[in-house]
Design goal:
2 domains, single chain, rod-shaped, two-stranded antiparallel ribbon, alpha+beta, 13 helices, BirA Bifunctional Protein, domain 2, binds 3,4-dihydroxyphenylalanine, 361 residues
Length: 361
């Protein structure tokens, strides 16, 4: 009878644990059935672990039952052992299944509780920003690139020829005094302006030329408005003789300065640079007092922002250019950044103080 029920129950998939109960067998089977229920009902990994110890632990129910095996009389031993092993398998499978279910739930809970909403704006993140000099430089470059100017560069360690001589600044010329710099023993020097890039570009290419040269330059200076290293942007346009005029230079610079500083007045003051003739210094109406006169513009109502002029024929001679005309200009990027951001001490831009830089985020 028991054999038949056994077969039937196996066929319809009811575990032998239940079968043991149905057959009204010893207490151990009903206890095992209870434990299977406990496994299925465990709703946490800790709860399941308790059941595991009760069942599979060293002193657990299965260990106790297996220990009884040695006392079972010979003919029944095999059946007893088989049944025990089948029960063990059923319970182990139930345990493994429940463990997987609870583990998956736990992972799901962790994922939910620790989920980060990456689309949420966080005020705590330390966002980087471009240095104000870089940002100003980029704006200047963008403007001229849009006007089809090529961006050229040259070495920071220059020689006397490119930095001075070819720019109509012969040795002992008094204008060299304004550009005292750092010299190397082999005659090299840290370039004092970006104008030598004009010379290098002209010597490497044929006219027409339409270029700017942004970059670092060096001088022996250190005060509120000067640092030993600063940045310039040089501009040069060379065309066939007669095709370039001072009027072209004026119009391009007026537009550029209004792009940088807004609606300002622009004035060209006669000046002197060895590499241009005629030369001019360019002022804008003071952006702080709108030309009325204040401390920043020393009461004049004007701020000097760049130098420019028509390229001196001696410069063309030095690079072997004939029958051309051109204009050039040069500006200090830090001066622009100081004015745009109202920075009182230029040196603060290079101290790397995060509190200053944070203001430009
Ligand atoms: N190189 C000059 C300086 O560093 C700036 C300058 C002035 C450049 C006039 C030019 C120019 O090309 O035409 O002070």
């Amino acid at each position: 009878m028991a054999g038949r029920i056994d077969l039937l129950l196996k066929r319809i998939g009811i575990s032998i644990v239940c079968r043991a109960l149905l057959c009204g067998c010893s207490d151990k089977w009903s206890e095992m059935k209870n434990l299977k229920e406990k496994i299925i009902q465990a709703d946490s990994l800790e709860g399941l672990e308790k059941v595991r110890i009760e069942l599979f632990g060293k002193k657990g129910l299965l260990a106790v039952e297996f220990a009884k095996l040695k006392d079972v009389p010979g003919p029944e031993k095999k059946a007893f052992a088989e049944e025990l092993n089948e029960n063990k398998t059923v319970l182990q499978t139930a345990f493994d299944t429940q463990y997987q279910i609870l583990k998956a739930k736990e992972i799901e809970n962790i994922l939910q509780s620790e989920a980060i909403d990456v689309s949420l704006y966080s005020t705590l993140s330390a966002k980087g920003a471009l240095h104000p000099v870089t940002e100003t430089m980029d704006r200047i470059i963008d403007y001229f690139v849009a006007l089809n100017f090529a961006v050229e560069s040259g070495p920071v360690i220059e020689d006397d020829f490119h930095n001075f001589e070819a720019l109509n600044l012969p040795k002992c010329h008094p204008a060299r005094d304004m550009q005292d710099t750092f010299y190397f023993n082999d005659g090299g020097l840290l370039r004092t302006h970006t104008s030598p890039v004009q010379i290098r570009t002209m010597m490497a290419t044929k006219p027409p030329i339409r270029m700017i040269a942004p970059g670092a330059v060096f001088r022996r200076d250190y005060d509120l408005t000067h640092t030993p290293m600063f940045h310039q942007v040089e501009g040069l346009v060379v065309e066939e003789k007669g095709k370039v005029s001072f009027a072209n230079l004026k119009s391009i610079l007026i537009d550029f300065l209004r792009y940088m500083f807004g609606d300002v007045k622009v004035r060209f003051r006669p000046s002197f640079f060895p590499f241009t003739e005629p030369s001019a210094e360019v002022d804008i109406s003071c952006i702080f007092c709108e030309g009325k006169g204040c401390r920043v513009c020393s009461g004049t109502g004007w701020l000097e922002v760049l130098g420019c002029g028509i390229v001196d024929p001696n410069v063309f001679k030095a690079v072997g250019y004939e029958d051309v005309s051109g204009y050039a200009f040069g500006l200090g990027v830090e001066r622009f950044a100081m004015l745009i951001h109202k920075i009182p001490d230029l040196r603060s831009l290079f101290e790397g103080d995060i509190r200053l830089l944070e203001q430009f985020r």
